[in-house]
Design goal:
The protein is of the alpha+beta class. The chain has eleven helices and 21 strands. It has three domains: about 1-80 and about 145-215 and about 300-360, FAD/NAD(P)-binding domain (3-Layer(bba) Sandwich); about 85-145 and about 220-300, D-Amino Acid Oxidase, subunit A, domain 2 (D-Amino Acid Oxidase, Chain A, domain 2, 2-Layer Sandwich); about 365-445, Arc Repressor Mutant, subunit A (Orthogonal Bundle), CATH 1.10.10. Bound molecules: flavin-adenine dinucleotide.
């Protein structure tokens, strides 16, 4: 067999599974169709780490609570920012006040600490969020809830897994999975691999032995309309605010790390920008059209997560479900898959496992003394590529040279934050393209934004020496 285990899909689930399994003496590969891991839905989401108090599903609540604790630990270990903002869930619609009591009772029954009901006590609410600019009679406060960068977490899991021997096969599309004696044959657009076990985390169906899997589809999809407001307010709201305005319409105000506000509006239909801003005023009255820096939409579902190991005897595990808290749940799912495989394959732990991510240096977070020290070691840290976010060439080069390094402009942006400032990349895009071309020994015309055929520069216009 080529591999003991093949993990299909490099989203947050696939990366978390690769990380957990890389601790064991087994030969593993992960197959991902994109140029980078976590390039799909793991990138566009609300980035909230839930604590298990909001859901009526006991199993999902348990997984969220375990996941939350694992993520907090992992973020500390890998230096991924974990912003424990807390969340105020409000009930501007009187009918919803009872729901807050139900959630509170559930949190108590589940032993989740740090969850409180606040009623007729303006002072307490405004102590929690002094910059709240709306009247709230009743709220459920959870001090556990946090905001993270899911992409940063996924890439950390993947880098550590790669450093410990997992073979990442990017730009390979899984086309078919077939049972063979003692395992599987997985066919991609480039290769055929054999393995003993398949862990399939690809959300879509891929057919085994040409039989369509009989997965029950939950069609309860809603639209998540996102509006990103720039950091233009004098007083930043630091807490996650959630309100169910009307049946089925939820508004979430998520403080971003750059002190802007990401407003998510869950609704049955796509909203226009004006409709979105109008609804967002229920919790974020300061939101004005001229402060909007981006809008995007995603499909949202509360379909529960299932680890389908009904075919474990033949070596097949499939993760199904499109739950809204899948990032929170991801490390708990990875642990369960690891335990299942540990028992069935009788695998042993590596003695030389290194549970550490290679250091990442953030120039803008360093003191002048530290900056001078790093510039004396590598003068590329003294060359600022992104003036909006104070990001140096040294950081860009490091993110390309690391295990599973960036190979696209988007990959560099996500890893370093370059190009995500107010200029939206107008000053630094060309610099990133040139550095990528130099580091990968490619022509700058071959550098892509994020995927095949997304080349940025189409042709030469003049024979400048540099190009
Ligand atoms: C609007 C929205 C908001 C959300 N907000 C939150 C939140 O606040 N908190 C939270 O905890 N969760 C949240 N989630 C959930 C979370 O973002 C996603 O569900 C999660 O990132 C999915 O991870 P995944 O690994 O299952 O899937 P994906 O990220 O989709 O990964 C699957 C991978 O498989 C690859 N792939 C697909 N087909 C193939 C193929 N044939 N061959 C090879 N590779 C393939 C894809 O390229 C992709 O990288 C939200 C989801 C949505 C939609």
């Amino acid at each position: 067999m080529d591999y003991d285990i093949l993990i299909l899909g490099g989203g947050i689930i696939g990366c978390a599974v690769a990380y957990e399994l890389s601790k064991y003496n087994i030969n593993i590969a992960l197959i991902e169709k994109d140029y980078d891991v976590a390039d799909d839905i793991s990138f566009i989401n609300t980035a909230i780490i839930y604590d298990g108090s909001e859901t009526s599903d006991v199993i999902m609540a348990g997984l969220e609570n375990i996941g939350m604790k694992l993520i907090e630990r992992a973020c500390k270990k890998f230096s991924v920012p974990y912003n424990k903002t807390g969340a105020l869930r409000m009930a501007s619609n009187n009918n919803n006040k009872g729901k807050l009591d139900t959630m509170y009772e559930r949190a108590k029954e589940r032993g989740i600490e740090g969850v409180y009901i606040i009623e007729d006590n303006d002072k307490l609410i405004y102590d929690i969020e002094p910059n709240l600019n709306i009247k709230v009679d009743k709220a459920l406060y959870s001090e556990n809830i946090a905001v993270i960068s899911p992409y940063d977490l996924a890439i950390s899991y993947a880098e550590v897994a790669a450093d410990n021997g997992v073979n990442f096969k990017l730009e390979e599309i899984v086309m078919d999975i077939k049972n063979i004696s003692g395992g599987f044959k997985v066919t991609t657009n480039k290769n055929k691999f054999t393995c003993k076990v398949v862990v399939n985390t690809i959300p879509d169906e891929i057919y085994i032995d040409n039989n369509k899997e009989d997965l029950e589809k939950n069609n309860d999809y809603k639209n998540m309309n996102y509006i990103l407001f720039e950091n233009k307010l004098e007083k930043h709201i630091n807490t996650i605010l959630i309100d169910e305005i009307d049946n089925g319409i939820f508004v979430i105000n998520n403080p971003t790390i750059s002190e802007g506000n990401l407003i998510g509006i869950k609704s049955n239909h796509l909203l226009t920008l004006d409709e979105g801003i109008d609804i967002s005023k229920n919790i974020f009255p300061e939101g004005k059209k001229e402060f909007v820096s981006n809008i995007f939409t995603e499909v949202y579902n509360k379909d529960v997560m299932v680890i389908d190991d009904s075919k474990l005897n033949s070596g097949y595990i499939k993760v199904t479900g499109t739950h809204y808290g899948k990032i929170t749940i991801a490390p708990a799912i990875a642990m369960m898959i690891k335990d299942t495989l540990k028992n069935s394959l009788n695998i042993t732990r590596k003695k030389d496992y290194v549970d550490k991510r290679r250091e990442v240096y953030r120039f803008k977070e360093m003191s002048n003394e530290e900056r001078n020290e790093i510039i004396s070691l590598d003068k590329k840290y003294g060359n600022i590529v992104c003036v909006c976010n104070n990001i140096s060439e040294g950081e860009v080069v490091d993110c390309i040279r690391r295990p599973l390094g960036a190979r696209t402009v988007e990959g560099v942006k996500r890893r370093t934050g370059v190009g995500l400032g107010n200029c939206n990349g107008s000053h630094c895009n060309i610099k990133i393209i040139k550095i990528l071309a130099r580091e990968m020994n490619k022509n700058i015309l071959d550098i892509v934004e994020d995927s095949k055929d997304s080349n940025i520069l189409s042709s030469r216009i003049k024979e400048f020496k540099e190009i």
